[in-house]
Amino acid sequence: MNHDLMKCVERIKDSELREYISDLLEKVPTYFWEIPASSTGKYHPSYALGERGLVRHTRAAVQIALDLFENKTICTFNDLEKDIIVAALILHDTVKHGIPGGKYTVSNHGMLVEMVAEYDVDSADEEEVLSILFKAIRSHMGQWNKDYRTGKKVSPVPMTELEKFVHLCDYLASRKCLEINFEHAAV
């Protein structure tokens, strides 16, 4: 696995989920590790632009989640839910330019991550975790869930608190007014 996200993956406490995410990162399109977070440069802060900007955006979203987890006033997630949030943020943009990949962001990219994921579940609990994980990834775009050209809805909006939290972390990581100091980041 690319070492850029190793610290993020290591934050997942559940060993089965951590191994699953690690294995899945080996299967994502190689462009994920190289491209900027914004294909046009319009929608992300400077740290997320340029080569490997999407990986930095991903790290920033995970860092924001980790920081918000410490705020007990707003964060009441249990350990497994926190693991699912971190996993969703790691994977949320891994197929941002589609499969096999084009020049620009594909509006339904949250829906495509499952195409890369091949999994056999061994238990109902494991199936439930993956269901929650992929719902959070599918809905990470929030209100920006329409195709740019057609205006047609291409992904769901977040419904659960976990899904809304994943969207919030991604949203904050994309704000131009917020910069992440990676020297002081945990991931």
Descriptive report:
With 187 residues, the chain is mainly α. Helix content is 44%, strand content 0%. The longest helix is centred in the first third of the chain and has 17 residues, at 53-69. The model has no long low-confidence stretch (mean pLDDT 91).
Mean pLDDT: 91
Gyration radius (Cα, Å) is 15 Å
Tertiary shape = globular
Please give the alpha-carbon distance between the first and last residues. Answer: 15 Å
Largest sheet: none
Q: Work out the strand percent.
A: under 5%
Label the structural class: mainly alpha
How much helicity do the residues have? Answer: 40-55%
Low-confidence stretches: none
Question: How many E-type strands?
Answer: 0
Number of helices: 7
Q: N-to-C SSE series?
A: HHHHHHH
Short description:
The chain is mostly helical and 187 residues long.
Write out key terms for the chains shown.
mainly alpha; 7 helices; 187 residues
Helix and strand arrangement:
Blueprint: H1 6-10, H2 15-25, H3 53-69, H4 79-91, H5 109-116, H6 124-138, H7 161-173
Helix pairs in contact: 2-4, 3-4, 3-7, 4-6, 4-7, 6-7
